[in-house]
Design goal:
Elements lengths: L2 E2 L23 E4 L13 E3 L9 E6 L2 E5 L14 E5 L5 E10 L13 E4 L6 E2 L5 E5 L7 E9 L6 E4 L6 H13 L5 E8 L5 E8 L5 E3 L1
Parallel strand pairs: 5-7
Antiparallel strand pairs: 1-2, 2-3, 3-6, 4-5, 6-12, 7-11, 8-9, 8-12, 10-11, 13-14, 14-15
Amino acid sequence: MAERIQTAPEAGNDMGNDDAIGGNVSKYMVLPAGYCGLPKKGHLIFDACFESGNLGRVDQVSEFEYDLFIRPDTCNPRFRVWFNFTVENVKESQRIIFNIVNFSKTKSLYRDGMAPMVKSTSRPKWQRLPPKNVYYYRCPDHKKNYVMSFAFCFDKEEDTYQFAYCYPYTYTRFQHYLDNLQKRNMDYFFREQLGLSVQQRQLDLLTITSPAGRWIWW
């Protein structure tokens, strides 16, 4: 196991105490067991404290492998699919295997050629990892949970890398899209606030007319 510079607070869930997951990790560095010096390149720093981020816990299995635990959906502790996190303080040519170890789905498109997304500071456009580097399987080492493992080689030390389940589409981006539609003053588009969510986010009611004059409510 590894020593942790900063740990996420733990809280129980339906997975048991051994797999307890709290909030998202925040600038969370993992040092090799027994290491006493200053952090150096190759001691990875994980972060998921941003909009649409999800990574609740990191365990270092070996120098080249990490087990990653994702947080469950809000109000649905048994549904665990989405992940989105960054990795920094990498070393050039550092090869790593990441294991997302607590997926809740028994079937996944990862078995049929789908692959996680990656981008970095110098390459801000999302790209898919090569499917040959992605594996989805049931793992006896993790209570027979389904695990998605992928191999990756970091090539630029100054870059921050971001990995996600698929293309992220955030609430903020959606709100900007609706704002732009509203500014166009289209006769067939009407937006009004229905209320606020528990987290004080705006809930929109959209009314859109079809060419035949029928109304569609979203």
